[in-house]
Amino acid sequence: MSRQKTLETKPYYDVLDGLRGTAAIVILVYHYLEMIYLDYSDNFLGHGFLAVDFFFCLSGFVIGFAYDNRVKTIGLKNFFINRLIRLHPLVVLGSIIGFAGFVLNPFVAGTEAGWGNLLLALVGSMLLIPAPFLPFRGGGLFPYNTPSWSLFFEYIANIVYALILCHIKKSVLLVLGCICAGWLMYTSYKSGWLINGWDIKTIADGFPRVGYSFIAGLLIFRFRWVLNNKWGFMVPFILLMGVFLYPHIDNDWLTEAIMVIVIFPLIISIGAGANVTGGMKKLCIFIGKLSYPLYMTHITTVWIFGDYYRETKPQGMELIVLIACLCLFNLAFAYFIMRVYDEPVRAWLTRKRNRGPRH
């Protein structure tokens, strides 16, 4: 291993962008497969759901890099406004798309829930207030856009960061990280795995998932645990895919805990210390930018597909072609949303904010 690089001299982490995009694409495919294989051991992306923990860890690193030296300067208000501009436009749009998909889904009677409940859940979804009372969504915290559960915990992590984590010493943060690692391992042991946190029954399990992983990413930045290397994108990519492709077995809580506690931080350390150029650099940047729009817009077609699959049971090549077409559609739709909605809206909000009173 080479010497750790000085983070302040590196303006952008292209490999980490590529890994973020990879994880988002894995989540896309995983969710379709999840509708087919009720037994997770049959899903070739047996641990695709751990992509969320990778996102949390990556977020801790990126937030530390972007704000550790700025929070006191810009203030709490500006920090929270920055994060809302970055994240919330797609929270709102994802909720609207999910609402339309829920009401217009031809395979379930969504309107039987009553328009009062439907509209209340829409408001809750747009404000990231859990609304786990609609049918056909398994008690999901955000029934219109179920991946929003991770944004709910991301927001909590950002609040805790701004109020507490950015002010404490590295040694205290390390102790806190060790405590959260133990909490995560206990949660994994108690539940038998780490898929929980997205629904009302297991909401408590989301706290150790975001707590450990966010702090782990922050620790990588604070302690400069970045491994300079010449491996480029492929080595961290292979490690990341190795986690997602690792077969699922019942009660494999220890394996999953090790993946999250050890392997994901290692991947981020390697990815932050790697460089890419040319076409690979452009690809990493592109899929990194696409990752959040893809994550926040894909689940509506997944739910409709799941209802269609249970009713018609397509098999063989028909099923493969259907999933491939749906994945391509979601990628194209995410790109469309990124270009015509997410980027313009965030740019408009930023300009509007900058024209306001100085703080």
Describe this structure in words.
With 359 residues, this protein is mostly helical. It contains twelve helices and no strands. The longest helix is centred in the C-terminal third of the chain and has 39 residues, at 316-354. It starts with 13 loop residues before the first helix and ends in a 5-residue tail after the last helix.
Concise account of the structure shown:
This protein is mainly α. The protein contains twelve helices and no strands.
Beta-strand percent range:
under 5%
Which range best describes the helical content: under 10%, 10-25%, 25-40%, 40-55%, 55-70% or over 70%? 55-70%
Question: Nearest-angstrom radius of gyration?
Answer: 20 Å
Q: Can you tell me the overall shape?
A: globular
Query: Which sheet architecture does the biggest sheet show?
Result: none
Low-confidence stretches: 1-10
Question: What would the average pLDDT be, to the nearest integer?
Answer: 94
Number of helices: 12
How far apart are the termini?
44 Å
Secondary structure category:
mainly alpha
Give me the count of strands.
0
Order of helices and strands: HHHHHHHHHHHH
Oligomer: single chain
